[in-house]
Amino acid sequence: MPGPFTEDIARLIQLDALDQELLALQAEQVETPQALETRRGDIAAASEARDAIASELQTQEAKQRDAERELEEVERRQARAHKRMESLSTNEQIAATEREIAKLGEQIDTLEGDVLEVMEEVDGLTERLASATSAIDGAQAGLDADKATWDPRQAVITGRIAELEAAIGEVKPTIGAEAAKAYLIGYENRGNRHHRGATFTDGVMCTMCRTEAPARWVNEARNGDGIHRCLGCKRVLVGAAPKTEGADDEESEEA
Ligand SMILES: [Zn+2]
Hints:
Helix Hairpins; mainly alpha
């Protein structure tokens, strides 16, 4: 035989489901645009960093061109000195030109080293620029896609919130004063991380905060004989949790 609070507890379960869906949608409405904005900001920051790489690359490429030009110039001078050797006759002239060629050779070695160094720098920057660009392009494409799905989703949420508020408005007045008050205490309890007025039990354990409830309360909640609140989270005990599809899946996976 159903107890005096059977009806109230059934309505609290209904109200709880409506409230939870409403809270989730309200959170989504606030958090999704914030998350999109954060991603937009991250992309802007990454683009700035990418531009800095691009400008450093230009600097290094200019350095490379300068070093290559200087190298060519010294090589030309050395070639001219070699050419001159053919027409020299005195030992002093030959010795002086040999010294000049050797000195230019040293300069060439140094400049070749400089060119190699700056070429490595250019290669590294080119790679970094390409990977930064592709990361930014990927992030931007993802953001554009998520923004595109958010617009219609926003409209769906707004519509559903209006429906939920209407349904909540209908259910609330049908709940007895004691049950309604107990629900509100659980819902408003500042010690809880989430607004929620009701909780199911798993055995004698509150499924929300894992506090044990007296067995008599659990039974009375199940039978509709009394309104009791969890000793931990203060939410109204509304009986055993209905079997979820997730639990069934787990069983089938084990089998
Ligand atoms: Zn609890």
